[in-house]
Design goal:
90% helix, mainly alpha, single chain
Length: 72
């Protein structure tokens, strides 16, 4: 009798509780799905960022080498 009263009470006092509990249960799956999607989307951005960083490093090294060669 006690458990049925608790279930009845929690369902009708807070009808959103069931929805909130369901969201908490599927949260890890949602996070995993979002991570997989972000990886697929950002794959192209990773290549672009790598190329830009490589070019910036190349320019930096050229400037440093020229500066060292011009020293008296």
């Amino acid at each position: 009798m006690q458990s049925s009263v608790i279930i009845y009470h929690s369902f009708f006092i807070n009808p959103m509780r069931r929805l909130i509990e369901t969201i908490h249960d599927i949260r890890p799956a949602l996070i995993g799905t979002a991570g997989t999607g972000a990886t697929a989307i950002l794959e192209g951005a990773n290549a672009i960022v790598g190329i830009l960083v490589g070019l910036a490093t190349l320019v930096y090294l050229i400037v440093r080498i020229r500066k060292e060669l011009r020293k008296p």
